[in-house]
Amino acid sequence: MELLSVRAASVRLSRQTGAQLALSEISLRIAAGERIALVGANGSGKSTLLRLINGLLLPVQGQVHAQSGVSQAMLFQRPHMLRLSVLRHVALGLWLRGTPWTAARAQALQALQRVGLADLAERAARTLSVGQQQRVAMAQALAMKPALLLLDEPTASLDPHAKREVEALMEDFSRSHPQAAMVFASHNLGQVKRLAQRVVYLEGGRVLADLPVADFFNPAVLQSRSPSAHLFTQGELA
């Protein structure tokens, strides 16, 4: 079942001038249960595409269509921690969506247990390590029970141990919610191999490859389908 589609969508960011677009005529379909990695050099449009999918940006042309009732949650590379306890930070999003506060706290605690932070529920969120803050943000996203989970470089600023923890949470989400889709941006090609079923390569705001993960990491197939993506996987495009 298709959860969301992007149809020939283009995005222009306000800080940009002239005719240059941040995304140009992007088309993408996301089905239930898919794990999709967005890859490409810095400035290729990965983060912009995630924000377009999430509704934080609107296209100047084209469309983004989500099936009715498809809930989304997005995890940013550097989550912003409010001046709240960890538990209140996670519960706040649920409360803002209309969940009564008592139920929101209970659901938040369950989410914190899932990411291994229940013992820090009353700690100030801003005092946690970067890795712990990312797990708090993951708990906040998981508490929403999204049908579509979006992650923007979720492990980019983490040490190896924290990266493994966040990857394990991503795997657990996909395993425990087989009908949910996960789309994540990553520079870590090893992570992409481990977690993705499908890889979308962006360059200059355009999709130049959209392949199953096995084909994307097959040099012969990738070189014939997208020479630029092949150069990227070989480390020749930063």
Topology of this protein?
Elements: E1 2-11, E2 23-31, E3 35-39, H1 46-54, E4 61-66, E5 72-75, H2 86-96, H3 101-114, H4 130-143, E6 148-152, H5 160-176, E7 181-185, H6 189-195, E8 198-203, E9 206-212, H7 213-216, H8 219-225, H9 227-233
Parallel strand pairs: 3-7, 3-8, 5-6, 6-7
Antiparallel strand pairs: 1-2, 1-4, 8-9
CATH fold name of the domain at 2-75 and 146-233: Rossmann fold
Amino- and carboxy-terminal Cα gap = 35 Å
SS-based structural class?
A: alpha/beta
**Approximate shape:** globular
The CATH class of the domain at 2-75 and 146-233, by name, is Alpha Beta
Number of strands: 9
CATH superfamily of the domain at 2-75 and 146-233: P-loop containing nucleotide triphosphate hydrolases
Uncertain stretches: none
**Strand composition percent:** 15-25%
In N-to-C order, the SSE pattern is EEEHEEHHHEHEHEEHHH
Going across the biggest sheet, name each strand in turn.
Answer: 5-6-7-3-8-9
What does the largest sheet look like?
6 strands, mixed
Radius of gyration: 18 Å
